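Recap from last week: sequence in, structure out.
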Amino acid sequence: MRRLAARGAAGDAGEVAAPAADSTDCARGRHPSSRRLIDLCAIWDPGVFLPAVGWKRASGFARRRLNEAETLNSVREAQLELLEAARPRGPGSRERGPVLRMARQQQPPPWVHAAFLLCLLSLSGAIEIPMDPSIQNELSQPPTITKQSVKDHIVDPRDNILIECEAKGNPAPSFHWTRNSRFFNIAKDPRVSMKRRSGTLVIDFRSGGRPEEYEGEYQCFARNKFGTALSNRIRLQVSKSPLWPKENLDPVVVQEGAPLTLQCNPPPGLPSPVIFWMSSSMEPITQDKRVSQGHNGDLYFSNVMLQDMQTDYSCNARFHFTHTIQQKNAFTLKVLTNNPYNDSSLRNHPDIYSARGVAERTPSFMYPQGTASSQMVLRGMDLVLECIASGVPTPDIAWYKKGGDLPSDKAKFENFNKALRITNVSEEDSGEYFCLASNKMGSIRHTISVRVKAAPYWLDEPKNLILAPGEDGRLVCRANGNPKPTVQWMVNGEPLQSAPPNPNREVAGDTIIFRDTQISSRAVYQCNTSNEHGYLLANAFVSVLDVPPRMLSPRNQLIRVILYNRTRLDCPFFGSPIPTLRWFKNGQGSNLDGGNYHVYENGSLEIKMIRKEDQGIYTCVATNILGKAENQVRLEVKDPTRIYRMPEDQVAKRGTTVQLECRVKHDPSLKLTVSWLKDDEPLYIGNRMKKEDDSLTIFGVAERDQGSYTCVASTELDQDLAKAYLTVLGRPDRPRDLELTDLAERSVRLTWIPGDDNNSPITDYVVQFEEDQFQPGVWHDHSKFPGSVNSAVLQLSPYVNYQFRVIAINEVGSSHPSLPSERYRTSGAPPESNPADVKGEGTRKNNMEITWTPMNATSAFGPNLRYIVKWRRRETRETWNNVTVWGSRYVVGQTPVYVPYEIRVQAENDFGKGPEPDTVIGYSGEDYPRAAPTDVKIRVLNSTAISLQWNRVYPDTVQGQLREYRAYYWRESSLLKNLWVSQKRQQASFPGDRPRGVVSRLFPYSNYKLEMVVVNGRGDGPRSETKEFTTPEGVPSAPRRFRVRQPNLETINLEWDHPEHPNGILIGYTLKYVAFNGTKLGKQIVENFSPNQTKFTMQRADPVSRYRFTLSARTQVGSGEAATEESPAPPNEATPTAAPPTLPPTPVGATGAVSSTDATATAATTEATTVPTIPGVAPTTIATTTTAATTTTTAAAAATTERPPATTSGTKMPESAPDRQSIWNVTVLPNSKWANITWKHNFGPGTDFVVEYIDSNHTKKTVPVKAQAQPIQLTDLYPGMTYTLRVYSRDNEGISSTVITFMTSTAYTNNQADIATQGWFIGLMCAIALLVLILLIVCFIKRSRGGKYPVREKKDVPLGPEDPKEEDGSFDYSDEDNKPLQGSQTSLDGTIKQQESDDSLVDYGEGGEGQFNEDGSFIGQYTVKKDKEETEGNESSEATSPVNAIYSLA
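Predicted structure tokens:
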């Protein structure tokens, strides 16, 4: 019989090779029919395998079952043999019998084992229905229970009852129930209903009823026309939470130290409640190893203490389903004690029992009672063993197992070691356990015998059996338990004995064998195995199908594989009988099997090594007696992914940069991903790391970066790995464990343990010391030792309290200092040396300060270090003066001026004096010199230097050590008119006692004054007579602000300013210029200009070449320093600049004068213009410059060096496309925070470029980009910042564009702003509004005044006979009565004058009378003196004041 199954994609059967051609199909499991394998596997004797000789001879029913009883016995024995082999064997396992032992002795060949095993599998084989819904919905199936309630179903009485039962089948099954093994008529009970399309029962109590009435055992039946499936027998119980019986509890009286048990005895609930103890005030009872709750809920006191009386004790029961807590009446304790005082301080006493007067006693068990007990537990449950003991002091509990150890993986201790829990108990956990309770008074043991029983559990649960017509199969129901369970078979819910007989079915104990099944054999079988501890019920149906072949995978799949790999093409299919499968390639007729191909039983085709020629279309064809089906798979072969340049092991110093290469070659049609692992974990790419497609760069390597780095290059089909190890050389770790040994008076041995060298060998150790007397906390180097030693003898100085530390050094650096050693003080001694650097110098003219360098701790040699200072005048034979000093200086007073002294300084401590000191010569203080140099003579050497000569002073007038002669000089004036000069004093020093010197670096053509002094350590002496001298004319400095501009292709404009230092009278300028093109130079041309000329326009003779200009100014002496500039460079040679906004042009003539002020500067605008290409000449870009006057204070530079303006609309580099590969025409369109970049190139498609830009802070950034991705937007720019940019090829950085400079606009700048938002427009509108307002105010004032006017002074000049003001309406008054009299006229300043004579005009002050003409007529209202004075004071401004002009018009 063949094993019928739907072949899955991952099947790995069919690997057994056949020994001969006639048994190949049997061995591989590929059989033409269901009968042939039965023939091949029919007869088995120990050591002999007898295949049938042919199909026809074995086709009959009798022949197929040769010696059926013997065959069944063989099968049964083989099954038992397999079970015996799989069963774990303990020390007491036994062999199964002589028959099996004989079978083991007579071993058949291996292929016989394979064939026989396949024969056994064939008896249990079945067709597996694919999970495809379309297939499952088409096939007829008996019912299968898919969901059901638990066997012990406890429900909440407050809710509706729900008993679940769901099943599937085709057609959909119907349901009915039994209750207590009797049919349960749902229709008769209005409270009971069944869910739609389900067998789930719903019992509704909303309209009344008691849930307890429905308690019982329920079983669900799911039925369709092919059979009936059964659920488990579900025992329905209603949860109960009964009340605690009322009881009055008397106080419990107990002697202190005695044991006590407070019993809980909770009411029986369903399920059992959770017990916990609290006080009546709902505070939890603190539990420890003395007071604890047992597993049965009682509260145990191993010994009662007086403090137990401070609370009461109430047992609480929490019921799960009802979520209620029942509380028992509280126990109160009355403790009888010999010590009634409950002193809280005794609670932490080490022996509280003796302190309380409690007698000690040996342990005894409170639970369980006696010395032995037994306990039974079911397999798979938790075993809880408990021992609670009393005693004083409180006993400790320990657990043991007789004859073995406790199972460490399953055993745990609970309740302060009083309980032992073993989870998931199995048979080997049975045995004897004992607990040992002990205290210092003794110990006691209790033995618990544990027996493990078992409810039935599956060894082989029956499975659904799907067969083709005529196929054989079997159902196996094998279970185990303790005691051994019994097996009962049922069919469609009825006992098998009462079912109609079926000749194709045979029951053999726990196995039902089916032979030659037909459609009528379909049914659902139940296996019920049970013992006294429980039961198991399993449903398994037998279904017979007749289905033509069908393909289960999508059609025309594409499979991509890697070259030279092993691959498998899957072709899942389904059919009954199971179809045969064949493979074909590219429509060829031969079946693919053998050689490089291998076909598995499940239909998969394996290609052992993929080659390029294996690419193509593969067709799989499935065939059975009902038809055939086929599918195609297209196979594509891809190149493997390979790392051809792998990362290499590297050794790097801490803080350096490391680059790990990883260059990959892969199939271009696959997407490549490169990732990195560190120590086989994904690498986090932080700020210090930069990951690129072909490398990993680590900046600032640290110790934590050491490890293995794996480059993982992967596609969706394969991957390649390459690993390298990075070793980081770090500074060594600090030495440790310093130890001082061999202690001597002047030496000690220091030993240390070296720290880790961090991959760089230690080269040296530096030993430092610190002393706590002179410089505590300051460490000094003591000695240095090679890195190969860790112990050294240190030479020490007397009377020093040493403390040492060690620093390790390697090539990377120094370690941190070690922890200090212990201190060691050497004994004292007199000093062996005296202080160094003894000096005697005067700080004033009548003293001498004696100083020296104090001795350090290692030279003091004893306590109370002091210094004996001695001094006397030199060569006088005076007695020595001496003083003892504790510091490092002493001042001798009342000394003559600058007298030599002999000085000695000797060290002394409490152990004695040091050696005799050396004598040092010092001098007392100096005084200012008393005389000045005389007969100072000056000789002019050139325009910038003079020679001095003087008579030296007498030595006794110096009054100290002569340091130098010093000349003070200053520039009095320049010989050039109107040239301001600085009169700051300068000095020239002439060290030593010398009579002559030279003063240089003078300004030519200037008047100077000079004085001489003598200088000693005290300062300057008196000044000599002032001398005057004049420097001759010299050559001028270079012209200032030399600028070269190129407004067009034909002309070049030059401008300059006068030299800053003319150094004489300018007689003109000399300009030299020469054309050059690369290394070729033209003829030099010389132009001479007048001294007032500062501009020059040159006509270009060659539009391609550039020019180099040299300009110098001339005096009578000659030409001065020259200024050199070159004409602007073309774009392909010079750095272009961004174009600023265009300014109005200013005409520039050939000559002109420069303004005397420096407040006028020039702004330049550069425009790039490409000159047409001339054969043999490179393209040239000429800078055209437009000049405009601005009010800045800095002159503009040449066009090629100008600073960009604040706002840049765009930068473009027009260039011609060369023949070779290059990049040109880079264009930048910037905004405030971004810029768009475009360029031209002649590279191939897919070329990678890099845009590199650097800001004004020299921060460089790069952006990789594809050629076709233009334009590129740079989005991380800053407003108002200048950037330089270039574009280069990623593969060859040498191929690069020219460098572009551009500036981003400032933030919030709008180049296209509306005129209404412009500042100048708003200001203009405000000015117009203000003028209109002033005009209205004046009109109002004038109307209110009505023609009042001031009287003009007599001294003013009279108006002429014909004044034009008379005709322009200046006398137009609004009031007719206020018109001026005939013969009078208003002057320009508003005063009134007579037409022919002003003799009648009189000035009037305050209180004056009116004015009259000669005929006595009244002229006008008088004006007070105050008004008159104001009018006089404003005469000079009225003509220009807009208000006065309006008054004149009014």
